[in-house]
Amino acid sequence: MSMFSALEISGSAMGAERQRAEVVAANMANAETTRTPSGGPYRRKEVVFSGANNSPFQLLLAGFRRLTGRSAVHISKVVNDPSPPVMRYEPGHPDADKSGYVAYPAINPIEEMVDLMGAARAYQLNAAAVSASKQMIQGAMDILK
């Protein structure tokens, strides 16, 4: 494992957490969207992280294989939440069905805020790891002077 591998992994994780925060922000912004171009209410989005490397862990530690983008953290896909929409009785709403119910997205603002705080905290932790890695690299360069 090279000295820069930790920087590569933490940097990719920071990018993935930024994308996660964007998805959460989109969910919050569309919490009351009852009509989309595809029809029906907005569907809550969830991110799926990926970062598995198929090479043996011992080879990575020994430094025999360089880390690639496949071993870094990234979002493999963004999926729709399978939860059914929340039905509210609002007979005067333009999107109400024949019974007077309107389908709203199944978005809980509290869960979204917890997700956003988790993404922000993970981003901060990876930023701290980048900072620590930079300090170690600088220390090693000072020793070599």
Strand order of the largest sheet: 1-2
In terms of DSSP E residues, the strand content is: 5-15%
Give the topology string: H per helix, E per strand: HEHEEEH
Q: What is the CA-CA span between the terminal residues? A: 23 Å
Percentage of residues assigned to helices: 40-55%
According to DSSP, the number of beta strands is 4
Low-confidence stretches: none
Give the overall silhouette.
Answer: rod-shaped
**What's the number of structural domains?**
1
- Given the structure, what is the number of helices? 3
Main beta sheet strand tally, sense and closure: 2 strands, antiparallel
Roughly how many Å is the radius of gyration?
Answer: 22 Å
Integer average pLDDT: 86
Structural class, from secondary structure content? alpha+beta
Please describe what this structure looks like.
- This protein is of the alpha+beta class and 145 residues long.
- The chain has one domain.
- The protein is 46% helix and 14% strand.
- It is built from three helices and four strands; from the N terminus they run H-E-H-E-E-E-H.
- Helix 1 runs antiparallel to helix 3.
- The longest helix is centred in the C-terminal third of the chain and has 36 residues.
- The protein is rod-shaped.
- The relative contact order is 0.22.
- The mean pLDDT is 86.
